[in-house]
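Two records follow; treat each independently.
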Amino acid sequence: MARQRKNGEIPWLRPDCKSQVIVEYKVGKNGENLEPKRIFNILISTQHAPEVDNETIRTTLIEKVCKKVCPNDLLKIGTSEECVYVINPSGKFDVGGPAADAGLTGRKIIVDSYGGWCPHGGGAYSGKDPTKVDRSGAYYARFVAKSLVNAGLCHRVCV
């Protein structure tokens, strides 16, 4: 989206954007590894020029972003398992950046918890004092999980 904003392909896009992709997985052929089955949901909230309506935003982002970036076989277009798009669900988003929102909580925790694979309680890890258990505990749990996988005791684990 940044490239499309900068090259003028989608001129009404603004820099503040948040996205989330929910992927449904299936157990792989070897019975252990996970393989993507389908993209269940794509959420995009993006800042835009004030004069652009929500339907234009929705249609443009689905066609020029989602369908160009995501593999069609995972979007399941035309089936009962077709991806659900949630575009700017809060409505108008023409003011962005620190003037509109400040703080560390929100989707950042999904990144810190490795894509939402691991359950978490909320709030962001980053920016917290390292003595806080939600930060140090999460980092140590990752260390334990990596050690178990590296030792060959499992292929995936949630600690």
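The next record belongs to a different protein.
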Amino acid sequence: MEITREEILEILTVLKAYSEYDLTDYSEKSIQRRFDKVLTDFRLSPQQAIQKIKRDKEFPKQLVKAITVNTTELFRDPKMWQELRYYVYPKFKDLDTINVWHAGASTGQEVYSNAILLNELGLLEKTNLLATDINNDVLNKAKQGVYRYSFNNEYLMSFDMVINEDPMNYQLHRGVPYSKYMDMDVKKDKLEVKSFIKKNIRYKEHDLINGVPIRQKFHLIFCRNVLIYFNFTLQKKIIQSFVDNLEEGGVLFLGRHESILEPHDFNLEREKKYYVKQMEGNL
């Protein structure tokens, strides 16, 4: 039997009272789907879950880890990466330091995709890459940079589209081998990111609801396919937090099916698949 809206609200209220987690502003539809599955997996009724939250200090974290969605891919949405390569990074190439935040980094494939691109552009060594997620289990997996080959091999085509092909000159093929950045063993079903790419990334457990993870302005913020799980009020709060911590001219990337209805309200301008923070007084 599906969990009711009233039961979800009761669980979320108790979760907020007995833990550091506040999921009350998550999208009702998405959180209902997740709770239906998670409570079935845990073999708990809503009332049993509530009692377990109150009595077991570790259960709230287990529950939140199970509820949050962790899906990411190498070079997901190649057109976005192409725009990053040809239109965004050229704006920042002369800076002494480039600060980049991947919010909701999950298991790290997107972060490693960015590090690979930065290395190809000769910018990796002067880029500070911060990757955060509410779920420390997926962050630990991201730190390892080890994945199933059978899951990721189909995304190697996206690697080629971003790293080896030029959408403005399809006669050009750069010929960068996968082995430059990844060790792959088909028999062992293993794909591992090389250590020189791993070392440039800092990881931090962080809940977006709590604002920014560090006191720092960023040139780029990636928060892709995360906001869709929040209600409109929380989306606006998080977007404003991003804007407040972007440098002027800084860039915000959202997911393929995410958008900001009135970007000017946030001092943002839409350009292609991303948003640019305007200088004060420009709007």
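Discussion point: The chain has two domains: 5-67, 78-144+195-277. How would you locate this feature using only the token line?
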